[in-house]
Amino acid sequence: MNRILLTAGVMAVLVYAMVLGVKWLSPKIEDDIANRVAVQLAQNGQLWADVKVSGREVTLAGEAPTAAAKDMVLADMSRVFGIAKVTDAMTVAGDTSATAVDVLATTPKTKAERLKAKAAAKAQAEAEASYTLVMTKMGDKIGISGTVPTEADKELLTRLSSTHYGADKIDMANVRVVDGAPAGWRVAAGSVLFNLVNMENATATLSGREVMVSGTVLDKQFSAQMEEAISAALPKTYKAAFAVEEATPVAVADVVAAPAVSDTAPAVVAEVTPAPAAEPEVSATAVVASASAPVVVPAPVADIAPAAGGDTCATLPNIAKERLHFDFDKAELRTADAPVVARVATQLRGCQTEQPVTLAGYTDVTGSKLYNTWLSQQRADAARRALIREGVAKDRVKAVGYGEKTPVASNKTREGRAANRRVEFHLPVAK
Asked: How far is CA 128 from each of CA 118, 191, 192, 340, rounded to the nearest angstrom?
C-alpha cells in the first residue's frame, strides 16, 4: 500500500513539474514562431496578413490583395518550423459575396451626403500624406521614430529589427501609435525595414504613400538587391525613390586583433536562445531539459603570423580552418568572433588570388529549408560586410548561403547545432 502511495505521489509531482514546464516554455515557443512567421511574410512582401499565435497554433486574418497572395501566405506557413495548426480567417479584396443591397446602402444618395463624403475623403488624404515614419541605420544599430497605426504594427517592426540587429540595438523610444495610416502601410514599412540590413548607413522615410531611402553601401550589389526587393514588395499605390552611394569602407572600432587563442581552449557562447530539437515534433519537457546545458562551439584557430619575409600567401590556406559562429536564429556577428574577422582580413589584404574567396554560410536543421537558405545567406552577407570594413577589397570575397547542407556535427544535440551555425572561408580552387 505504501509503495502504491509513494508511486502515486511521485507521478503527481512529475505531472505538476511538466505542467509548470509547459507554462514556462509556451511564451518562448509562441515568440519564436511569431518571429519566424514575420520573417517569412517579409521575405515575400506579404505583411498585410494579421497573425495571432497561441501555443503552436497560428490564426491568419486580414484582407489579401489577391487570391494568389492569400495562397502564398498559406504556403509560407507550411514552411515555418514549429506550427502545429493554421486557421485561415483571411478575406480577399474585391470579394463579390456582398449583395447589391449592401453596396447601395453605403453609397451617398443626397447632395449633402455626397459633399460630406467628399470632405471626409479629402481629410483622410491629408492625414495620410502627413503620416510619417523614419528609420535610421548606423552600422549595426537601428533607430525608428514617428507614427505607427497599432501596437501590433509596432511589435512587428520590433520583431523584424531584432532578426537582423538584436533586441539591444533597437531604439524605438520615439514611436507613437496614431490612427490614420494609408492602406498598405504595414507592408511598405515592414518591407523597407527588412531590406535595410546590408546598408552601412541609411535613412528611410515613409511619408504617406511615398518611400525615400538614402545612405551608403559597401558594394553596389547590396543597393541593387535592396531596391529590387523593396520595389517588388510595395503596394501599387506607393512610390519609391532611392539615393544610395557606394562608400569607402571604414574599419569597425570594436573589430580589433586580439591575442592568439589557444587551439585547446573552447569558446563558450555566453547566452544563446534555447534551440528546439531538430525533429519536427518536440515535447516541452525535452526542450526544458536541454536548455540548461551550456553550448560549446569550436574555438578559432591560433593567430596566423605571416611567413618569413612577410609573405602572407604562404599562410593563406589557414583561413580555411577559421569559423564564425552564430547564436540561434541570428545573423549578426558575435563580439567573440571579432579576432577571427581581423585575422582573416589580414590574410586577404596581404595575398591576392585570381578568384574571390567564398564566404559560405550555414545553419542547423531547425526550420524549413527555404528559411535556412535565407538565414545562411544573411550570415554570409554579414561576414562579407565585416571583411570589407576591415579593408578587404569587395571583389575579393563573395557570400553564398548553403542553408543546412554539409553539417560539421550532429544536429541531434545543442552542441552540434551550435557548431553547424557558421560561416566558413572557402579558398578558390587552383587551376
From this structure: 15, 19, 18, 48
Q: Is 323 left (phi over 0), alpha (psi -120 to 50) or beta?
A: beta
Provide DSSP, 290-355.
Answer: HTTSPPEEPPPPPPPPPPGGG-GGGGGGGGGG-EEE--TT--SPPGGGHHHHHHHHHHHHH---SS
**pTM of this structure:** 0.69
Residue with cell 499565435: 53
CATH (residue range 127-246):
3.40.1520.20
| Residue 121 CB burial class (10 angstroms; 0-12, 13-18, ≥19) | exposed
* Interval 84-94: pLDDT, tens: 999 999 999 87
pLDDT attached to residue 102:
47
pLDDT in tens, 141-198: 999 999 999 999 999 999 999 888 888 889 999 999 998 889 899 999 999 999 999 9
C-alpha cell at 76: 509560407
Q: What DSSP designation does 395 have?
A: G
Q: Which of 50, 61, 51, 65 is nearest to 95 (CA)?
A: 65
Cell numbers given for 397: 570575397
Query: Between residues 288 and 91, which one has the greater pLDDT?
Result: 91
Domain boundaries, given as residue ranges, for the chain:
2-91, 127-246, 267-426
What CATH number labels 267-426?
A: 3.30.1330.60
For domain 2-91, give the CATH number: 3.30.70.1770
